[in-house]
Amino acid sequence: MRAAASQLTATADKARNLETADRLVRAAAADGARLVVLPEKWSVLGPADVLRAGAEPLDGPALTWARAIARELGIDLVAASIAQRIDGQERGANTSVHIGPDGEDRAAYRKLHMFDVEVGGRTYRESDSEQPGDAIVTSELADGTKLGLTVCYDVRFPELYRRLAVEGAQVITIPAAFTVPTTRDHWEVLVRARAIEDQCFVVAANQIGEHAPGLRSGGRSMIVDPWGLVLAQAPDAETHVIADLDLDHLRRIRAELPSLANRRAEVYG
């Protein structure tokens, strides 16, 4: 199976974001990708007021486009993630949606871990405008491959990824908007670690560039195999990267180095 991670620079300009996403998804499909992953907040990204103003329900324009292009191109599309507006609630959600080649939603995942941190002298309070989800979510690709859904800051919580692997995930997606400092120092280490310890393919699609004054993401979108080898990594540009995911290779690794099977769950849960 060929997968693609799309990398773009989302801003408050939703029309431009959608145009860029459309171009990148079409280019990835033209390169043979059957699974395409968009980055976190691909439809709108900026400070809290921009996210609130640009938030949409799950039947809004962003995901309506995503369903249509998945159907047109016959691909699995992880349209991840959008700022979701929830009727009757002050705070929205950071929601990733897996759409099948028939244009129908296969699964929706709300980011579990809110990005409430201080990085590079800037304070981020994701929980001020968005509420966390409360469910671990897997889905299934058109060919039957088990898919695990996560978003950005989730990658720092290995217990989530282990649960996804134990529940059968073979491919895990990480749409992200990692800051420049954390992309530089942590991104590759974390993505490769999750792939190695859970013996999964990881498709990690990051944002790149400046979204608003003082708000930047570091790019380096990548696809990693279950041995931890980087199969593809993006340059600092709006682009996509492609790799072939050999599921027989995954099965060999899990059989020959059976760390998942050797877990001592009776000891540590």
Q: Nutshell version of this structure?
A:
The chain is an alpha/beta fold and 269 residues long.
- In total, the number of strands is 16
Radius of gyration: 17 Å
Q: What percentage of the residues does DSSP assign to strands (E)?
A: 25-35%
Distance between the termini: 33 Å
List the helices and strands and how they pair.
Layout: E1 2-7, H1 14-30, E2 35-37, H2 48-54, H3 61-73, E3 76-84, E4 93-99, E5 105-110, E6 116-119, E7 122-125, E8 138-140, E9 146-149, H4 158-166, E10 171-176, H5 180-198, E11 201-206, E12 208-212, E13 215-218, E14 222-224, E15 230-233, E16 239-244, H6 247-256, H7 265-268
Parallel strand pairs: 1-2, 2-3, 9-10, 10-11
Antiparallel strand pairs: 1-16, 3-4, 4-5, 6-7, 8-9, 11-14, 12-13, 14-15
Question: Explain this structure to me?
Answer:
The chain has a single domain, classed as Nitrilase/N-carbamoyl-D-aminoacid amidohydrolase, CATH 3.60.110.10. It is 29% helix and 30% strand. The chain contains 7 helices and 16 strands. The strands form 4 sheets. Strands 5-4-3-2-1-16 form a 6-stranded mixed β-sheet. The chain has a 6-stranded mixed β-sheet with strand order 8-9-10-11-14-15, with helices on one face. Strand 1, helix 1 and strand 2 form a beta-alpha-beta unit. The protein is globular, with a radius of gyration of 17 Å. It starts with a strand and ends with a helix. The mean pLDDT is 97.
